[in-house]
Amino acid sequence: MLYSYQWLKELSGTTRSATELTELFTVHSFEVEHIDDLSRGLEKVVIGEVLTKSPHPNADRLHVTTVAVGAEKPLTIVCGAPNVAVGQKVPVALVGAHLPSGLTIKKSVIRGQASEGMICAEDELSIGKNHDGIIVLPDDAPVGASFAAYAGRDDTVIDMKILPNRGHDCLSHIGVANEIRALEGKKGTPRDGTLPRASALFDARVTTDRCRRYSVVALDNLTLAATPAWMVNRLRACGVHSVNVIVDVTNYVMLETGQPLHAFDGARAARIVVRMAKPKETLTLLDNVTHALTPDDIVITDGTSPIALAGVMGGAHSAITSTTATVVLESASFDASTIRRMRRRHNVLTDAAFRFERDIDPSLTVPAIARATALLRDLCGARVRAAVDIDPAPVTPWTITVKRHAVRALLGLTIDDAVIVDILTRLGMDVTTTDDAFTVCVPTVRRDLTTPEDIIEEIGRMHGYANITPAPLRAAVAAPAPNALRRYEHTVTDVCVASGFDEMKSYSYYAPDDARAIGIDQARHISVLNPLTPEFALMRRSMIPGLCAAAAKNLRYASETRLCDIGRIYAPTDKALPDEVLTLGAAVAARGTAGEQFYALKGLAENIAAHVDGGFLYDDTWPDHEAPLPRLHSARRAVIRTRDGAMAGWIGEVPARTQKHYGIKNVRVAVMELSIATLLAHSTETTQKYAPLPKYPTVERDLSMLVPPRLHVADLLAVVTKSAGPLLRNASVFDTYHNAATNERSVAFRMTFAAPDRTLTADEVDAAVAAVITRVEKNGDITVRQAK
Amino acid sequence: MDTITTLAQLEKDALHRIAAARDTRDTERLRKDFLGKKSSLNALLRGMKDLSAEEKKTVGPAVNSLKQRLTAALDAKHHELEDACSAMTEWIDVTAPGTRRYIGHLHPLTIVQRDIEEIFTSLGFEIADGPDIDTEFYNFDAVNMPDDHPGRDMQDTFWISQDPDRAKGSGTVLRTQTSSVQVRYMETHTPPLRIIVPGRVFRNEATDPSHEHTFHQFEALVVGPDVSVAHFLSIAETFFTAFFRQDITVRLRPSYFPFVEPGFEFDISCTSCKGVGCTVCKKTGWLEVGGAGMVHQNVFTAAGYPRNAYQGFAWGFGVERLAMMKYHIDDIRLFHSGDTRFTAQFTR
Hints:
Radius of gyration of chain A: 42 Å
Strand order of the largest sheet of chain A: 26-29-30-34-33-32-31
Mean pLDDT of chain B: 91
Largest sheet of chain A: 7 strands, mixed
Low-confidence stretches of chain B: none
Number of strands of chain B: 10
Oligomer: heterodimer
Strand content of chain B: 15-25%
Distance between the termini of chain B: 77 Å
Structural class of chain A: alpha+beta
Helix content of chain A: 25-40%
Helix content of chain B: 40-55%
Strand content of chain A: 25-35%
Number of helices of chain B: 12
Distance between the termini of chain A: 87 Å
């Protein structure tokens, strides 16, 4: 909310500057977002009177004027404005002025004629856009006086973020002025007032308990005078435009007291009934939009039809117009939650609704209506015809008991009782001290204060949190419970990075188009009801879209890219909440058509497999029934399983059409996903054990064989391993080659032999190798080419 | 000339010639000349048998010691010449790039998150997790933000399910704050407790250089019989001092979060100017970091704790904000850009 510094100063009696108040608020009360000195740039602008005017000897369009500015000698000023005339009162920028528009005024010579200042147009003073001519002030403007003061710009706007819990009392100048008084050691000014005396009762009825209080005054004999400048200036400082004197008064009183008021044209509100709206009722508001009402809307009616959406906005039909002669002034209090729903439903946020939904004190209605009535009497000659105050459940101050030790225990602060009592008293509370507690009577305007902790907060902030000395926490020395999943996640990420993959983070949601592109049915996703854009409508079921989009981006700068992204994917369940599966997604995008990307990515999988007990198995039967798997290249994909058959993830090449969707050209992309929790369940962290180093030399033998083109080399390796006998320590594939021309495929194995108790003889190893050869050649489809 | 004098002359001559050697072939030839079978030194040794016992006692050791000295001189010269030679023929450009296998980069948020996790773990905090998609109960109601609470307005929410006729608190949302984990954790744990909750949170708001709809928060929660604001200040200063590796002071300002009372915004002394005032802190000497406060008793009761049995503090801040402060990053959107030109700038 915007506050006028001058207004706050008047109400609080402070001598602090706006900047000093800002510092005080920041540490004790609220965040000041911005302060804006309205007179900035106008310091050297004064009111002058044009004494003489003559044509410029050397320029047709310029005039030479002499202008009295309250100094001994009039100033000679060259002026180009067509409207300048003798006798005018004008704003004059003196030499040395730095105007808000950025212009600096210097003594100068214009076409041979000395000039000692400038007569200003609106735009030069940043008070308007007009540059057609100079500003001509009223004849009674005092020559020599500050223009800023005259124009009501000798004020500073303080923009403060009032916290939601202080909306009850501080969305008003009185509230903030009382805060200042409390901070400066003085008691606040209570918001008092009595209902204006009237000879008649106004005919008003309230039929819903969601209207907590309804005060109304009917005024007649109004003359719609111009709103006085001081009021217009204060409204403007607070960002409120002047409309007419009646509306201006209601706004002014709201800004002053925090209580929203509404003025109906008396001719349209002979009587008032406050009730809930009926189905199918409609109401055209001041913004000329017609709203369909619901039974959850509180309406002000004239006994028949709605004339205002209570607490939100008045109706167009009952608005104040230039012909208004009588006014019905409403000062009411409504249920905060209802107002909140109403303004949301109707999508109208007004200053009134903003305050009502912050649950303001029903006790404010009468002081506010009294203040407004007094102002309208003074400004428009209004007479009170009738009044009524409907207050079915009067609010009275309540008490809170705060244990003495609780203050110190919660704040960790040593503070004297006298200081506590003084703080609370300044805040308008009545404090009774007992042996072990303070009993505090809270003024009704502080609806935020309901618990002992609320009171302790008031003590803490007013005393100053800077007075609290940090104290080390005393606790038992204990190792925190480990977070195994997170630890394993870190391990996997580290393996990715060490394997040359750059970690990235993609959003948790993607577009229906992404789901289509990767071939996972949209229906198998969780949807966001109100996505920021349709691009973010589905909770991700796969890391592929994020990886592909990032790969496409990075391929603009690099010929290949390796990415990993560890995050959660979201799987619908029949429970309240979905499964969130922490998943490693990884991608390799590079040139090549022979599966290079697949094998590069599988290299990462194998590095990760070092942390998985028993490693991984790669299974190219694609179990669509087991999980919603993404669409991958049907000849280049595998499910990744742990030794016990659990599905840990999958790996495969992204098909051409998916690549195309992401705009990836000239390279191919392989992608992989692994469930971190599944890997953790098979972690080697607790299973790994030392194996004694071999004491006797190992013997290596290589075996190269011609195999059928589509044989799974892993199967053959298993055969080799099984048939080599007990001396085999390890067997691995170290080369595979496919000759496309002959469609011949060769595979080379390296076998390592050793015995725990002796050096092997060549004969023993030869026999083991011979056994392998016999076994692999048994079926006739494999030929051993070379053994060495 | 006696033998000793001969030896001295021999040594002088030999050292002179060794010094003059120009390459390793010279040193090998000299080695043969001075120490080989046909060398005069060897001849002297051979002639020892003709010497008197008295002479043998002095000449023998003298010859051996000269042999050692010459060997040492030859070795030194040989190595010197060998080094000079390889320096000539085997020069490589040590400034040319090394052979390297590309190592990837951790995302800067991961780096910062691990730093945070390590500091808190060393202070005895457990790392807890909670779901990204949670019920409105845990995200709002349990942390003292019942339906229609103005506090809900501060956080624009993505809804997953929001049936108007739903049971109270049963709608599901993308969590707007890691505070959603407070009650989840407390339901199954008894104080004293110290946890941190790092996690992804979501806000339905438009993005710009300082706002993201997806970001990461860190929640810290400490609950015990007598945990106070003073303890919070101490833990916060300890953490930030460790994180920024410089002395940091914490300033509290009054603020409001429904799940705490009292509630604070907390600032840290500016890491660029140490509190003097500079452009980074807009001349205030302070940097705004996050929100904190003393856990509201309503939160404890939502977790099933008896009212007024415990005190605790909770605080939260954005991991992105910390990363931006640490690395002087000026656009929060870079974190989710997937651009490796960004992430490759950081190492742990």
